[in-house]
Design a protein that fits this description.
7 strands, seven-stranded parallel beta sheet, 10 helices
């Protein structure tokens, strides 16, 4: 007998750790999981941002805690996971959202900036996933890992978008997702990625100002940028029992841009 869809989409009794969860896309995803019933632990670098985000979610009736940490530092990642285990008891869902970008022509891109982007955008995903899997998911034979990639990881750039390190890191996230899904399926862990297109955020503010938000929206078949609701459904699908037979997949949420470019 089939399961009612409301039950499949429910996260009652689940716990979720969301990195980079104090604002933007990470906060939107945390809100979605919390509204479906999950207890949430947010992590990012700035305590003030986390406190504000937690208060915002708590005002919606979402059980939310937070811990400040730099996801690019392996020792901080290990500390976050240890605190999550202590405060939540287990980690059912890991959302790897923490990320950064750097704009510079490839021929003059600073090496230290390359390393900064790579350490946060891809190495931290490995460190967090490994720590969470060993602490909770593998022993319990259950887990949902959701990586936040980007359509920038599905193809190249127009000349004006000089983000070689960011694109490279997000391309790595795509194949990291597929490879990890292949390894950890036997442990009952699904690993999927969301690849957002352009969403107004602190990270994209400068680029949208340079290129023009209206111009960027016009490039999408739906003629719009992403908004505060557009990642919620995808995140909930990957986190819930409705997505229990989905793993190793990359879902572009981009208004159709990648359909035109073949990404």
């Amino acid at each position: 007998m089939s399961t009612p869809i409301q039950q499949l989409m429910s996260l009652e009794g689940r716990t979720a750790l969301v990195t980079g969860g104090s604002r933007g896309l990470g906060l939107q995803i945390a809100e979605s999981l919390g509204e479906a019933g999950a207890k949430i632990l947010l992590s990012s670098r700035k305590a003030a941002d986390l406190e504000e985000a937690a208060a915002q979610l708590q005002a919606k009736g979402i059980d939310t805690r937070w811990v400040a940490a730099d996801a690019s530092q392996p020792e901080d990642a290990q500390r976050v996971v240890a605190e999550a285990m202590e405060r939540l008891g287990r980690i059912d869902i890991l959302v790897n959202n923490a990320g950064a970008t750097w704009g510079a022509p490839a021929e003059t891109h600073p090496l230290e900036a390359w390393d900064k982007v790579m350490n946060l955008n891809i190495r931290s995903l490995f460190v967090f996933s490994q720590a969470v899997a060993n602490a909770s998911m593998i022993p319990r034979r259950f887990g949902r890992i959701i990586n936040v990639a980007s359509i920038a990881g599905l193809g190249g750039n127009p000349p004006e978008m000089q983000t070689i390190a960011y694109n490279t890191s997000k391309g790595a996230v795509v194949n990291f997702t597929r490879a990890l899904a292949g390894e950890w399926g036997r442990h009952g862990i699904t690993v999927n990625a969301i690849a957002p297109g352009f969403f107004p955020s602190r990270m994209t503010k400068g680029l949208l100002a340079t290129l023009g938000a209206d111009k960027m929206a016009a490039h999408a078949p739906l003629h719009r940028l992403g908004d505060d609701d557009d990642l919620k459904g995808a995140a909930l699908l990957f986190a819930s029992a409705a997505g229990k037979h989905i793993t190793g997949q990359i879902l572009a949420v981009d208004g159709g841009v990648s359909a035109l470019t073949g990404g």
